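Researcher: Here's the sequence for the chain we discussed earlier.
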Amino acid sequence: MTAIHYASFNGSLPIIKLLIEKGADETILTKKKLNVIHYCAEGNTPSCLMYYYFRFKNRDENGNTNLLQLFKQPDENGSTPLHWAAYSGSVETLLYLINLDIFKDEEERQEFIDKKDNQDRTPLHLSIDVKNSIIATKLLQYGATPNIRAALEKTP
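Model: Thanks. This is the structure I predict for it:
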């Protein structure tokens, strides 16, 4: 975990901005393939999430690589930032992730909401695993499929 990952988890925008100003790579991955968006999701820091969103969107519009893909990028366990938000109980971040304009259409958004990790768990499975009815309800309101089967054929 680098300083920018730690600052993203803690929601410290002034530190993030200082680190970037001093040359920190905001796209760097940890050994477990976690990026700054994963840490924003785990730490429930929607202000940092939005900072990166507008920063990456601006850079993408100027012809750079598609940095907005970091919002959907899975870690080494196949968990996207949405999985991390669901597991951590990060309601605000979960809602931002679902509602960002990072999807080409509604079908892609649905795939993101129902994406399975390497253990075949969707964000809805994780919200049920940690007994977070608020997250589960929000996911269902946004169209999460309740009958997707994970390991041992279990549905959420």
